[in-house]
Amino acid sequence: MQIRAAVLEEFGKPLVVQDVDLAGPKAGEVLVRLVACGVCHTDMYSSSGVDPSGYAPCVLGHEGAGVVEAVGEDVTSVAIGDHVVTLFSPECGQCVNCRSGKTNICIAIREQQGLGYLPDGTARLSRDGDELRHFMGCSTFAEATVVSEFSLAKVNPDASLEAACLFACGLSTGLGAAMYRAQVTPGSTVVVFGLGMVGLGAIVGARLQGAERIIGVDLSQDRLDIAMAHGATEGFVADEHTVERILDETGGHGADFTFEATGNVNVMRQAVEAARMGWGVATMTGVAGRGETLDIVPRLLITGRTVLGASFGGVRGRTQVPQLVDRYLAGDIDVDAFISHRISLDDVNQGFDLMHHQDGIRSVIQFS
Fold it and tell me: Is 106 one of the catalytic residues?
C-alpha cells in the first residue's frame, strides 16, 4: 500500500513528506493505521545527527497511537479494530530480561530494531523499490506503520487516541521514572529539573505517589506555572545557585528524590548534588549528546546517594501503559492539557521548530 510519511533524508535537514510504500505485516507483525502522533525531542535529536546510533534515510516518529488494521500470522495479543499505542521500548514477556522482573529493557528484538529493521532483519518501508529503514521499531510519522506485536500496547478504546499517543514516550517516561523506577515514597521531597513533557510527567508521578513537596526547576517561568497546575508545590527559575537553593530550602539536607529531564550533563550533576545524603535517589531520564560524560564527585556516592537511569521510565510497555491510560480515564492525569499544538503531517517540521523554541509542551500530528 502507498502512504504519506515524513522521511529523514539527510541529517540536519528538514524532513521530507512524501509517498512511500508499506508492505503488509509478516508473522508476528501488525499493521496500524495512525490516528495521532506526538512530536518528541528524540525525533528532533535523531534528525540532527547528534545521535550516535542514528541513520538515514528512514521514516521518523515513535510516539504514536492508532487502530489495528491487519495482523500477521501468530499474532495473539491484538486484533483488528483494537486501539493501540506504539512502543519504542517493546515487551516480549519471554526473554531473559522480561522474565527477570528486574528491568523493562526487553532484548528480544533490540538488535534489529537498533539497525532500523523489524525482527526478521528486513524493512516493510520502501520508496521506488529501495528500502527505507524504520525508526525505533515504530516509524509513526506516517499514515500507517507495520510493527512487531511486542511493540504495541492495547489500550481502552474509551481513551482519546490523541491523548493516548503521549503515553508512547514522553509522558510515560516521566510518570514511570517517579512511580516505577525511583518509586517515590509518600511524604517525600522531590525535585524535578526540566519541565518539558518528561519532567511534567515526573511531577504528576510524584503527586500520584503521595510526595509532600514537589519542587520544579526550569529556565521558563511559563513551564513552572504549568508544573504548579499538575502537582508541583513550588518551583523556581534555574540559575548558577540552583543546588545551593535546594539545599537551603530542604534544611541543608537535599531532596529524597531528584529527577533530571533535560539531557544536559551539567544538570545531571546538579540532580546528584541536590539529592539527600544517606538515601537520596537521583534519576536520569534525559539523553546526553554524543561523547558527553557525567562528572560526579565520588564522595556523593560514598555518602549514600543512588544514581539511576530510567529508559522509558522503567515502564513495561504492554503491561503498564494500559494501566497509565486507565489513570488518565479516571481523571488522575490531565493529559489533554499537555497538548499545546495540533498540526498535520505536512507541518511536522513546524513541530520541531515549536519544540526548539520551547513553545508549548507537546505538538500532536493529527491524521485525517
Answer: yes
